[in-house]
Amino acid sequence: MKRRSAPALAVALCVAAGLLAQAPIPASADSYPSRPIRVVVPYPPGNLADVNARILGDPLSKRLGQPIVIENKPGATGVIGVDAVVHAPPDGYTLLLNSISLVIGPAVLKEVPYDVARDLAPIALIGQTSMIMVANLAFPANDLVGLVKLLRAAPGQYSYAHFGIGSLSQISMEAFKRAAGVDIVGVPYRGSAQALTDVISGQLPLMFDAMTSAQGQLEAGRIKPIAVSAAHRSRFMPNVPTLAESGLTALRDYNVEAWSGLLAPAGTPAAIIELLHAATIDAMQDPDFQRRAAAQTLEIYPPMSQDEFGVFLRAELARWRQIVRAVGLEGSQ
Q1: Helix/strand/coil for 194
Q2: What is the pLDDT of residues 305-315, one digit of tens each?
Q3: Of 122, 126, 127, which Cα lies nearest the Cα of 265?
Q4: What does residue 291 show for φ and ψ, rounded to 5 degrees?
C-alpha cells in the first residue's frame, strides 16, 4: 500500500477534523436539556393531539426547566409533521405529539415515507378520549338497538357525516356498519365543526365525533348521544352506553379509543428518552394537567414504560391495518 507523505496526511487529518466539526453532536443526558424543546403536532390547532400538547406543555416545561414550544405542522393526513420529526436530529430537542392517526395513516395512505415502529422512539402514552355516536334531536332512534332496527329497515336511505376519508370519524362508522350489517351513506366534511353543525341543523342525522368536540353541544342539548365507542363507559358521560353494551352480538368486541402519545426520533439516546419519560409521567400527575385534561374529556392512562408503549404501538399498527382493510379503506388516499 502506498504511504502518504507527511504533508498529505496532515491535510487529510485537517479535512476530517473539519467534517467532524460540522457533524451534529449527540446530546448528553448530563447537559440535557439546555435549550427550548420543540414538540411537533402534525395537525391544526384544536385537534386532539394539539389540545394534549398544550395542556402537557406547561407542567412538562416546569420539570425539564426549559420552554416547550408547540409547532403545528399539518398536511397530508399528518405525514408532513411526522416526517419532519423522523428526519430531525435525534438529540431530544424535537419531539412528536401524535394521536391514533399515527397508526391509522400507514393503513389508509397508499404510501408513507417512514416506518412508525422503526423510525420513532416511544416516550409516553398520555391518554384517550372516546368517539361518540351522536344524532340530530329529531332522529327517530334514541338508542343503538332502535338505530340498527331503523337502518336495517331502510338500507341506503340514511346518511352520516364524517370529517374526511380515512378519518377516525369515518372508520368508526364504517366498522359499525360492517358489524351491525347496515347500509348508511357517508358524507365527507373538512372537519368536525362543519359536520357537527349540519347534524345539529338536521342536514344529516348521524355522525361519530370525538367526545372532546361533541361535549359542548351535548351539554347544550343540541344533539343526543347514541353510544360511545370505547370498550368501557366514559367517566365524563357515564349514562351513555358503549356499542359493546348494545346486546348485539356483532358489536360485543367493538372498541375504538382516540389516544395520544409523545415520541422522539429513533436513535435518540436512551438516557434522554428515560429522562423525558420520567418527566412526562410526573407532569401527568400535576393537578393542573389533570384538571385541564378532564375539561377535554381526556382519560389519563396509568403510567406505562417506554417498552410497554412500544408494544402498545406495534399492536395498534397491526390492529388498525386489519380494521381499515376490513372496512375497505386500505390505501384509499
Answers
A1: helix
A2: 999 999 999 99
A3: 122
A4: -65, -45
- What is the CA 252 to chain-centroid distance, rounded? 24
pLDDT in tens, 153-172: 999 999 999 988 888 999 99
Look up cell 448530563; give the residue: 30
DSSP state of 333: -
The pLDDT score that the predictor gives to residue 270 is 97
Can you tell me the distance from the alpha carbon of 237 to that of 33, in angstroms, rounded to the nearest whole number?
40
Using an 8 Å Cβ cutoff, are 104 and 88 in contact?
A: no
Whole-number Å distance between alpha carbons of 153 and 141: 12
Q: Which residues pair with 122 in a beta bridge?
A: 263
**Residue 230: which of 203, 207, 259 has the closest Cα?**
259
Q: Which residues contact 138 (CB under 8 A, 6 or more apart)?
A: 202
Adjacent-strand bridge partners of 130: 257
C-alpha grid cell, residue 94: 424535537
Q: Is 1 helix (H, G, I), strand (E, B) or coil?
A: coil
Give 103-106 contacts, CB < 8 A, sequence gap 24+: 103/313, 103/316, 103/317, 103/319, 103/320, 104/166, 104/168, 104/171, 104/320, 104/324, 105/77, 105/78, 105/79, 105/166, 106/317, 106/321
Grid cell listed for 76:
397530508
The answer, as to whether pTM is greater than 0.90, is no
Q: Which residues contact 108 (CB under 8 A, 6 or more apart)?
A: 77, 165, 166, 324, 329, 330, 331, 332, 333
